[in-house]
Amino acid sequence: MTTAIPPRPEPPPGVGATTAPARRPQAESYVPWKPGLLPFLLPLAVILVFCFWSYQPGGGALNWVLSVVWSLPVIGSVVGMQGAVLMRRRARQLRRLPPPSPAVHDALLVVVPTVGRRDTYPALRRSVESYVRHLPAYFPSLRVDIVTEEGCEAADAIAALARSLPRVRVVEVPAAYRTRNGTRFKARANQYSHELRIAEGEARDDVWVLHMDDDTAVGPDTAAAMAQFVNRQRRAGAKAKHLAQGILTYPRENAVSRFTWLADAVRPADDIARFRAITGSGTPIAGLHGELLLIRASIEARIGWDFGPKAIVEDAQLALNFSQRYPGRSDWFAGRCYGASPASVRDFVKQRERWAWGLVGLVFNRTIKLRYRAFLGMCVATWALGPLQHVGFVLLVAWATGTVNTSPVSMVIAVLWAINFAYVVWCYWEGLRLNAHASAGGRRRWWEPPVVLLLIPLFSLIEGWGGLRGFIRFVRREENKFVVIAKPA
């Protein structure tokens, strides 16, 4: 078991590892991603031409309802494309810079909470092995903490894994442990780990905490991008950032179901679009992922994870609390992490349901100022209403009511619709490209782009169904549940 990180001398010693100075890793391991704009502009042009050709003003009830609900996502669409443009600019800047150097003046703690079931252990092992393999080259001072419940099902296997790898220790959350506010689930484990770091004297400015899920691995590009970010903050002085996040991708070889893998193309696209724009602008009001979340240990110590018994989207709640206390102090980096899509459609819906359930509760959380909840609330409302906005449902209602014309009440509204539909196409196209690039071979297979485009209506229905179920559970005031789906190896 490794020891706590000591106060930083110059030059800094490694944590549970060699004290030899780190060498610069090979530059070829770090290639910033540059999203395309043509997959948005081309569908936008086609949809606009169709709208101008087919538009007939409508003034019925359905026309007015559609004019509102199909226009709601436009703010998120515009913000997302702004993020894509900003990422292209950042990629050009990064490619002109020298290769990232190791972060020799800062320490990195990787925190990996796990439910510790046998069906989640293979993915945990894959992830932890990647941290030990790739991170030390850029972070000589490194430790990996596997945080699990006392007496969990896979406790023996997890302990053996920690013994077999350097820089890894197991942190067991005692069964009797209770937080002051009664926080449960993953946030409780994060709070225990957080309190342990404070007790061990590791809640310092020169210590960074990387929060990862137990099925999410890293690569050389992840380590390089994080080191570049950390070194940049050391030079930034009073303007330094305290939190950052990168891109979550899903390699094809990690997928059990090819259908859910294609459906998850939307998630990395969200990272290079909406999250790039919002988190990268300094204030993460759109929330955060629970993985590839890099935060300064001293800042995390002031916020904590003790959000109360209803917290099931602790990452998003941390983001909004951070936004209130440290506006303008977050950033975004171009490194990727490598997760796995749900193993089945059922797990896919359960995952989305939990997210929506927790996010709706967070939107109504009055301990957070309204201006920090507003954008998230708009996004969640659009998500929860998804099935009622679906084109299939709209056509069914039009048929039932004898409505022939489903055009909006103004041509201006049709332009907003075109932006939204083109953005959805862009998300699945670029997200698929990102996931394929993160996979073995690094390319899309010839049939994947047309299939993912044809399946967008079905994917959006499944996404919306999960969102609507989460909203219904919140309205019915059901007891919060933190559902952990099986994790592919």
From TrEMBL:
<feature type="transmembrane region" description="Helical">
    <location>
        <begin position="36"/>
        <end position="55"/>
    </location>
</feature>
<dbReference type="Pfam" id="PF13632">
    <property type="entry name" value="Glyco_trans_2_3"/>
</dbReference>
<dbReference type="InterPro" id="IPR029044">
    <property type="entry name" value="Nucleotide-diphossugar_trans"/>
</dbReference>
<dbReference type="InterPro" id="IPR027389">
    <property type="entry name" value="B_mannosylTrfase_Bre-3/Egh"/>
</dbReference>
<feature type="transmembrane region" description="Helical">
    <location>
        <begin position="374"/>
        <end position="399"/>
    </location>
</feature>
<protein>
    <recommendedName>
        <fullName>Glycosyltransferase 2-like domain-containing protein</fullName>
    </recommendedName>
</protein>
<keyword id="KW-0472">Membrane</keyword>
<keyword id="KW-1133">Transmembrane helix</keyword>
<feature type="transmembrane region" description="Helical">
    <location>
        <begin position="61"/>
        <end position="86"/>
    </location>
</feature>
<dbReference type="InterPro" id="IPR001173">
    <property type="entry name" value="Glyco_trans_2-like"/>
</dbReference>
<feature type="region of interest" description="Disordered">
    <location>
        <begin position="1"/>
        <end position="23"/>
    </location>
</feature>
<keyword id="KW-0812">Transmembrane</keyword>
<feature type="compositionally biased region" description="Pro residues">
    <location>
        <begin position="1"/>
        <end position="14"/>
    </location>
</feature>
<feature type="transmembrane region" description="Helical">
    <location>
        <begin position="411"/>
        <end position="429"/>
    </location>
</feature>
<feature type="domain" description="Glycosyltransferase 2-like">
    <location>
        <begin position="208"/>
        <end position="424"/>
    </location>
</feature>
<feature type="transmembrane region" description="Helical">
    <location>
        <begin position="450"/>
        <end position="472"/>
    </location>
</feature>
